[in-house]
Design brief:
heterodimer, A: 736 residues, alpha+beta, Phosphoribosyl-aminoimidazole Synthetase, Chain A, domain 2, 25 helices, 23% strand, B: 224 residues, alpha/beta, Rossmann fold, Phosphoribosylformylglycinamidine synthase subunit PurL (chain A), PRibForGlyAmidine_synth_PurL (chain A)
């Protein structure tokens, strides 16, 4: 096949197929190059200027996020952010979406999402220690969705289990809007022992560019562009854009990269993952950061297909590949080092000082453009925003649930897919490998200890897209605060977040409003509890036939537990322990699970979140845990008190005996800023003094596994064993 | 006692075994690369879990061609301690050092959980610190852990007391609920559950510790 000429590309506007607009093309040809870009060059601009790589639509919004704290060693802009945790150690984490690939090829899409995020962590020189996943699908009422769910879950497990990293947390939820556009967000957390980490830079004249890892094929070409477009019925056959993962190679690559940075950091000037937009993105970013130029010779690139063009090699998103920039005098040592790991490693180019990005293929100079034009000259868009019409229309709507039988509603609630136990999914993930997992999936947050210290890291993934849909600003705040409560409930101090911003088409003013306002909500909550946003990713254009998903920002939060003796779990421990709820329960039913249950839709506004009170309640729980007053602690979220009480009781097959002034419907209210805690009777006075004014005593834990509940409306006894069975088996039943 | 933990490309529970021995029973332990040709100086060899060679072909099938394997075979023949966990068990059956084979779980899904096992035989080097019929809580994490053997072999290993552990709840569809078996001499043990992950209460169970203590106890007995 002959490639189109530069003139053809211009006249036939071929660049539009690759996602470049006419204005962008004109900017490249008239202002940057002063000539027409050839086929390869046009391809490079189109991927580097895609939303996925350039954030051209979201940059302005992202700047609103706070990214500073005394712990921050590196923030957004690196492969992943870094936070100091003392003792010359740091934690590195990032989350990334793989929504579009997972919709098309669910197993590989999810697997390579995991593989990609792991590379982002070890390219910072950190040892990956844990994985989490946030998944959203359509309802489990059809074979297609069940297949999708099975394959995505198998892909995540297949990759993580094989590479040997524990999956310690995450979330799975189901809503209509994700039926054709599922969300697959993966997060990886790593530990950095050498805080003199490697920046992803290519510096020093004549330094060598080394390619390491799997061979390059034609898979994933234009993946980044694909991720920056919406799905339609006619476009859902984009199979060639999906990559195939090989966790075995990645395990070798991970071990090798961690070792070379720990033991031979003097050889290496920079290291970067070849992720979205593969070779071009990784090398151009490294050179641009250092203010350098680069010469690459594509004939040296290890290839697993024949007759690949320069365009194909540069844009391939073949997995399990890294780029290193090394000092030339260590060439032999570096190549021998990777040979020992049985990995392909070859020199494919060198650093120059002229700031040009030059690519040779079969003796021809096929690209000669300024490096910075790929990374720095991308136009930044200021999109128009308009408050969604639904927000105005439903502003004064207040949903009031009707509960005629507390027992019946309680049991129905436990079986709802969004509430029921997700063990059916997470038991297919190895959560224990590396023998550091202290809290496995099923708790409020996963907890991984740091071997050799008293410390541990708590981590969670949270999203509350229903709330964000109703009120993006308050919903954004809630998302951060729920994550924080999950961390606090385990005994941790929230120290930072990463995020995946999953939204619709930014060119739609209503969708852009959702993005902008929810980011403002996230930012204000992060400022309140001093959790900087140290990394993240943006996934826009999540639409199918022009219907957008709920705006779905996902927050991945990490917390530090100073002393594992303070580790707290959600499970009730002993009969006789007193059950308290911290925070006052009010009528918060808009956007709740009980609204979905009774109206099969969500509607109405959210009450503003009192950030001060939220912070105070989190501080109260942290103090109570440090004073060893809490025997269990559980964040209150979807399904309210009824669900939290059940989950805490099920773990050790205990029951409850409670009497409250709340009404039966309020047992399902989703008022924020609340925790469910248990306290030993001997600590009653101490706890009540500490929590004065912020608690309600509900009752006590019983050996009898039944739930004896007296509300203002009725007195019921719910069969605890039956409730547990329904909660545990609901998902497996639906997946049949 | 000096323990070797074999490291194949793709092994990922090697450090779990390493720490179980180093911190759990405070013994001398060293990782040994699959390219090494000698196990001289070691008293026991541990084959860890993971996905050696990415489980290509079938689990354990490629690892048996690694240079170190000849030494593992020699070790076993000399009656020294050889222990395989999970993928290590698969490798030992692939080498015919242990009877039977491990196939895909009955429900075809990977399963990670903490299971109850019954100690069937407490008379071997790996179990002398357990009570017979004692229930122990040990984690599992595998997709191809369903123990299979023909009826003749089953009768043979039953009669020879080679069945060491059984699942209380048959999580993967194993023949006769078998979780771990030994060779005739009792010096080679393979099991799908991970005792090396059950070394500290804070991890959910410390019931695996006695397996490693049993090995030490046996060594002391032999030396005396």
């Amino acid at each position: 096949m002959t490639e189109p000429t530069a003139e053809q590309i211009k006249i036939e506007k071929l660049y539009q197929q690759w996602g470049l607009t006419e204005e962008e093309y004109d900017l490249i040809s008239e202002k940057i190059l002063n000539r027409l870009p050839n086929y390869t060059e046009t391809g490079l601009y189109s991927v580097m200027w895609s939303e996925h790589c350039s954030y051209k639509n979201s940059k302005k919004v992202l700047r609103k996020m706070p990214n500073k704290s005394p712990r921050v060693l590196a923030g957004p802009g690196e492969d992943a952010g870094i936070l100091d945790i003392g003792d010359n150690q740091a934690v590195v984490f990032k989350a990334e979406s793989h929504n579009h690939p997972s919709a098309v090829e669910p197993y590989q899409g999810a697997a390579t999402g995991v593989g990609g995020i792991i590379r982002d962590i070890f390219s910072m020189g950190a040892t990956p220690i844990a994985l989490l996943d946030s998944l959203k699908f359509g309802p489990l009422n059809n074979g297609k969705t069940k297949h999708l769910v099975n394959e995505v879950v198998a892909g995540i497990g297949g990759y993580g289990n094989c590479i040997g990293l524990p999956t310690v947390g995450g979330e799975v939820s189901f809503e209509d809007c994700y039926e054709h556009n599922p969300l697959v967000n993966a997060m990886c957390v790593g530990l950095l022992n050498n805080t003199d980490f490697k920046h992803g830079t290519a510096s020093g004249n004549n330094s060598l560019i080394v390619y390491v890892g799997a061979k390059t094929g034609r898979d994933g070409i234009h993946g980044a562009t694909f991720a920056s477009d919406e799905f339609t019925d006619t476009k859902n056959k984009q199979r060639s854009a999906v990559q195939v993962g090989n966790p075995f190679i990645e395990k070798l690559l991970m071990d090798a990269c961690v070792e070379i940075i720990e033991k031979h950091s003097d050889w290496v000037l920079g290291i970067q993952d070849m992720g979205a937009a593969g070779l071009v993105s990784s090398t151009a970013e490294m050179a641009s950061k250092a203010g350098s130029g680069l010469v690459l010779n594509l004939d040296q690139v290890p290839q697993r297909e024949t007759k690949m063009s320069a365009y194909e090699m540069m844009l391939s998103e073949s997995q399990e590949r890294m780029v290193l920039c090394i000092k030339p005098e260590y060439e032999t040592q570096v190549l021998d080092f990777f040979k020992h790991y049985e990995l392909d490693a070859v020199v494919i180019g060198h650093v120059t000082t002229d700031g040009q990005y030059k690519i040779y293929h079969q003796g021809q100079l096929v690209t000669d453009i300024p490096v910075d034009s790929l990374t720095e000259d991308v136009p930044e868009y200021d999109r128009k925003e308009v408050q969604p019409k639904r927000m105005l229309a439903d502003k004064d709507y207040h949903f009031e649930p009707v509960v005629t039988s507390l027992a019946k509603t309680w049991l129905d609630m436990l079986q709802r897919p969004n509430i029921a136990s997700k063990k059916y999914f997470y038991q297919t993930y190895d959560s224990q490998v590396k023998t550091n997992t202290l809290i496995r999936p099923g708790g409020d947050a996963g907890v991984v200890r740091i071997r050799g210290t008293k410390k541990a890291l708590a981590m969670t993934n949270d999203s509350n897209s229903k709330y964000v849909y109703l009120n993006p600003f308050v919903g954004g705040q809630i998302t951060v605060m729920e994550a924080a409560r999950n961390i606090v409930a385990t005994g941790g101090e929230p120290i930072g977040i990463t995020d995946c911003l999953n939204f619709g088409n930014p060119e739609d003013p209503e969708a852009f409003y959702e993005l902008d306002k929810s980011v403002e909500g996230i930012a204000s909550a992060c400022e309140m509890i001093e959790t900087p946003v140290i990394s993240g990713n943006v996934s826009l254009y999540n639409e199918y036939n022009e219907t957008a998903i709920y705006p779905s920002p996902m927050v991945g939060m990490v917390g530090l537990i100073d002393d594992i003796d303070n580790l707290t779990t959600i499970a009730f421990k002993d009969s006789g322990d007193l059950i308290y709820v911290i925070g006052q329960t009010q009528d918060d039913f808009n956007g709740s699970e009980i609204q979905m249950q009774q109206e099969n839709t969500i509607k109405g506004d959210l009450r503003p979140l009192d950030l001060q009170m939220e912070k105070a309640h989190q501080a109260l729980v942290r103090t109570a845990i440090q004073q060893k007053l809490l025997k269990s602690c559980h964040d209150l979220s979807e399904g309210g008190l009824a669900v939290a009480l059940s989950e805490s009781a099920f773990e050790n097959s205990l029951g409850i005996d409670i009497k409250t002034d709340l009404t039966s419907v309020q047992m399902f209210s989703e008022t924020q800023s609340r925790f469910l805690v248990t306290v030993s009777q001997k600590d009653q006075a101490k706890f009540e003094t500490l929590a004065a004014g912020s608690y309600e005593l509900l009752g006590r834990v019983t050996t009898d596994p039944n739930f004896k509940v007296t509300t203002r409306d009725e007195k019921v006894s719910i069969d605890g064993k039956q409730a547990a069975t329904k909660w545990k088996e609901a998902i497996a039943c639906l997946m049949k | 006692m000096k323990f070797a933990v074999i490291n194949f490309p793709g092994s990922n529970c090697d450090m779990d075994l390493f720490y179980a021995i180093k911190d759990g029973i405070n013994e001398n332990v060293q990782l040994v690369d699959y390219r090494e040709k000698s196990l001289a100086g070691f008293d026991a060899v541990m084959v860890p879990g993971g996905f050696s060679y990415g489980d290509y072909l079938r689990s354990g099938a490629i690892a048996v061609h690694a240079p170190i394997v000849k030494e593992i075979i020699r070790f076993a023949a000399e009656g020294k301690i050889v222990f395989g966990v999970c993928n290590g068990f698969q490798i030992l059956t692939e080498l015919n050092l242990l009877p039977g084979a491990l196939i895909r779980n009955e429900k075809s899904r990977f399963v990670c959980d903490i299971t109850d096992l019954t100690v069937i035989n407490n008379q071997i080097a790996f179990t002398n610190q357990y009570q017979k019929d004692e229930t122990i809580r040990i984690p599992v994490a595998h997709g191809e852990g369903r123990y299979y053997c023909d009826e003749k072999t089953l009768k043979e290993i039953t009669d020879n007391n080679q069945i060491i552990f059984k699942y209380n709840d048959n999580i993967n569809g194993s023949v006769d609920q078998i979780a771990g078996v030994t060779n005739k001499k009792g010096n080679v043990l393979g099991m799908m559950p991970h005792p090396e992950r059950a070394i500290e209460d804070i991890l959910g169970s410390a019931d695996g510790l006695k397996l490693f203590q049993s090995i030490i106890n046996e060594q002391v007995r032999v030396n005396n």
